[in-house]
Amino acid sequence: MRQSVFASIRFSAVCQGCGAQAEWSGVQALVNDSLRWGVESMCSACGFAVAVCGGDLPDELRGRLLSEHRTATLRLTVPAQRAKAMRVLRAELGIDLTDVKVVLERVLAGAYSGTLPEIECLARRLRAAGIDAVAVPPTSV
Ligand SMILES: [Zn+2]
Questions:
Q1: Which of 16, 90, 110, 111 counts the most CB atoms within 10 A of its CB?
Q2: What is the distance in A from the centroid of ligand 1 to the CA of 22?
Q3: What span, in angstroms and rounded, lies between the C-alpha atoms of 83 and 63?
Q4: 41 Cα–ligand 1 center, Å
Protein backbone atom coordinates (compact mmCIF):
# COMPACT_ATOMS: atom_id res chain seq x y z
CA MET A 1 0.00 0.00 0.00
CA ARG A 2 1.38 3.36 -0.98
CA GLN A 3 1.72 6.17 1.43
CA SER A 4 -1.15 8.64 1.54
CA VAL A 5 -0.47 12.34 1.15
CA PHE A 6 -2.58 15.00 2.83
CA ALA A 7 -2.93 18.75 2.87
CA SER A 8 -5.31 20.12 5.47
CA ILE A 9 -6.44 23.49 6.71
CA ARG A 10 -8.69 25.10 9.29
CA PHE A 11 -10.67 28.20 8.53
CA SER A 12 -13.71 30.02 9.79
CA ALA A 13 -16.80 30.54 7.70
CA VAL A 14 -20.43 31.32 8.31
CA CYS A 15 -22.50 28.51 9.83
CA GLN A 16 -25.26 27.37 7.48
CA GLY A 17 -27.54 26.80 10.46
CA CYS A 18 -27.40 30.06 12.44
CA GLY A 19 -25.10 32.47 10.59
CA ALA A 20 -22.45 32.62 13.32
CA GLN A 21 -18.78 32.22 12.48
CA ALA A 22 -17.96 28.53 12.72
CA GLU A 23 -14.69 26.66 12.56
CA TRP A 24 -14.27 24.52 9.43
CA SER A 25 -11.64 22.02 8.53
CA GLY A 26 -10.78 20.99 5.01
CA VAL A 27 -8.51 18.31 3.63
CA GLN A 28 -7.30 17.12 0.27
CA ALA A 29 -5.75 13.68 0.18
CA LEU A 30 -4.18 11.27 -2.23
CA VAL A 31 -5.36 7.86 -1.04
CA ASN A 32 -4.78 4.66 -3.02
CA ASP A 33 -3.72 6.79 -5.98
CA SER A 34 -6.91 8.79 -6.19
CA LEU A 35 -7.49 12.36 -5.12
CA ARG A 36 -10.24 13.09 -2.59
CA TRP A 37 -11.28 16.12 -0.66
CA GLY A 38 -13.57 16.86 2.23
CA VAL A 39 -14.66 19.68 4.49
CA GLU A 40 -16.48 19.52 7.76
CA SER A 41 -17.77 21.90 10.37
CA MET A 42 -19.45 21.75 13.72
CA CYS A 43 -20.94 25.03 14.94
CA SER A 44 -20.34 25.71 18.63
CA ALA A 45 -23.23 28.18 18.73
CA CYS A 46 -26.07 26.01 17.42
CA GLY A 47 -24.57 22.54 17.03
CA PHE A 48 -25.17 22.41 13.27
CA ALA A 49 -22.75 19.94 11.71
CA VAL A 50 -21.96 19.43 8.06
CA ALA A 51 -19.52 17.27 6.15
CA VAL A 52 -19.07 17.15 2.41
CA CYS A 53 -16.57 15.34 0.27
CA GLY A 54 -15.90 14.40 -3.31
CA GLY A 55 -13.34 13.85 -6.05
CA ASP A 56 -12.73 17.14 -7.84
CA LEU A 57 -11.50 19.80 -5.49
CA PRO A 58 -13.73 22.92 -5.43
CA ASP A 59 -11.85 26.08 -6.42
CA GLU A 60 -12.58 27.76 -3.12
CA LEU A 61 -11.04 24.98 -1.05
CA ARG A 62 -8.12 24.69 -3.48
CA GLY A 63 -7.46 28.40 -3.08
CA ARG A 64 -7.48 28.07 0.70
CA LEU A 65 -5.10 25.10 0.60
CA LEU A 66 -2.70 26.88 -1.74
CA SER A 67 -2.68 30.09 0.27
CA GLU A 68 -2.10 28.18 3.51
CA HIS A 69 0.46 25.66 2.33
CA ARG A 70 1.99 27.29 -0.73
CA THR A 71 2.48 25.13 -3.76
CA ALA A 72 4.30 21.89 -4.42
CA THR A 73 6.29 21.65 -7.63
CA LEU A 74 6.52 18.81 -10.14
CA ARG A 75 10.05 18.01 -11.28
CA LEU A 76 11.20 15.65 -13.99
CA THR A 77 14.73 14.49 -13.35
CA VAL A 78 15.11 13.02 -16.85
CA PRO A 79 13.86 15.70 -19.24
CA ALA A 80 14.67 13.52 -22.27
CA GLN A 81 11.46 11.48 -22.07
CA ARG A 82 9.31 14.25 -23.46
CA ALA A 83 6.98 12.20 -25.65
CA LYS A 84 6.19 9.73 -22.89
CA ALA A 85 5.75 12.50 -20.32
CA MET A 86 3.35 14.33 -22.64
CA ARG A 87 1.22 11.21 -23.05
CA VAL A 88 0.88 10.79 -19.28
CA LEU A 89 0.17 14.48 -18.69
CA ARG A 90 -2.44 14.58 -21.45
CA ALA A 91 -4.25 11.57 -20.03
CA GLU A 92 -4.08 12.80 -16.42
CA LEU A 93 -4.98 16.42 -16.99
CA GLY A 94 -7.41 15.84 -19.89
CA ILE A 95 -5.79 18.50 -22.06
CA ASP A 96 -4.97 18.68 -25.76
CA LEU A 97 -1.62 18.54 -27.52
CA THR A 98 -1.16 22.30 -27.64
CA ASP A 99 -1.81 22.71 -23.93
CA VAL A 100 0.32 19.74 -22.92
CA LYS A 101 3.37 21.26 -24.61
CA VAL A 102 2.91 24.39 -22.52
CA VAL A 103 2.45 22.30 -19.36
CA LEU A 104 5.56 20.23 -20.11
CA GLU A 105 7.64 23.35 -20.64
CA ARG A 106 6.48 24.63 -17.27
CA VAL A 107 7.31 21.28 -15.64
CA LEU A 108 10.79 21.26 -17.17
CA ALA A 109 11.31 24.85 -16.06
CA GLY A 110 10.35 23.86 -12.50
CA ALA A 111 7.31 26.13 -12.70
CA TYR A 112 4.43 23.62 -12.65
CA SER A 113 2.83 23.67 -9.24
CA GLY A 114 -0.31 22.78 -7.32
CA THR A 115 -1.33 21.30 -4.00
CA LEU A 116 0.97 18.58 -2.68
CA PRO A 117 -1.59 15.76 -3.16
CA GLU A 118 -2.21 16.88 -6.78
CA ILE A 119 1.45 17.07 -7.64
CA GLU A 120 2.24 13.81 -5.86
CA CYS A 121 -0.56 12.16 -7.85
CA LEU A 122 0.94 13.35 -11.15
CA ALA A 123 4.44 12.32 -10.09
CA ARG A 124 3.21 8.80 -9.29
CA ARG A 125 1.48 8.48 -12.67
CA LEU A 126 4.67 9.59 -14.40
CA ARG A 127 6.81 7.18 -12.37
CA ALA A 128 4.40 4.36 -13.21
CA ALA A 129 5.17 5.10 -16.88
CA GLY A 130 8.89 4.82 -16.17
CA ILE A 131 9.58 8.55 -15.95
CA ASP A 132 11.73 9.82 -13.14
CA ALA A 133 9.37 12.41 -11.64
CA VAL A 134 9.23 13.80 -8.11
CA ALA A 135 6.88 16.04 -6.19
CA VAL A 136 8.83 18.73 -4.39
CA PRO A 137 6.90 19.72 -1.25
CA PRO A 138 6.33 23.40 -0.51
CA THR A 139 9.13 24.82 1.55
CA SER A 140 8.05 25.20 5.15
CA VAL A 141 7.55 28.75 6.31
ZN1 LIG B 1 -24.52 27.63 13.94
A1: 90
A2: 7
A3: 31
A4: 10
